[in-house]
Fold YCII-related domain-containing protein.
Amino acid sequence: MKLKVFITLSILLTTLSFAQEKKKEKVKFNQELATSLGADQYGMKAYTIVMLTTGSTKIDDKAKMGALMKGHMANIGKLADEGKIIVAGPFLEKNKENYRGMFIFNTKSKEEAEQWVKTDPAVQAGVFSYEIFPWYGSAALPLYLKHHEEISKENP
């Protein structure tokens, strides 16, 4: 019985080690892609994160709030289509900072990011306020957007 377990474990470990070796194969560097994405020598680049916070305006009218949120979502879509916004989404839990959601903008300019976030109807109405932070991340981040429509059945 012990021999069977030993042999089974040996086969499993050997298989896993081969799988790990295969994962370690280096992908060939693609200069054209790196340049098109604005990557530095580490494959990274500067972005700007905007943290949406609870604003000073509270709107109890559900129809008005619904219209603002519809405009908010449409604006996110427009900015994404223009290549300005790369990531957007709400936080799923309340937090002490009152962060409601975040955007990652495809710019290293805080001023440019602020211009873009001010196009949001919910920000204009004061439902959301914001904080802006410089951020350094993978230059390949924008590439996920082209696949998002392939995996989403509906738009929010």
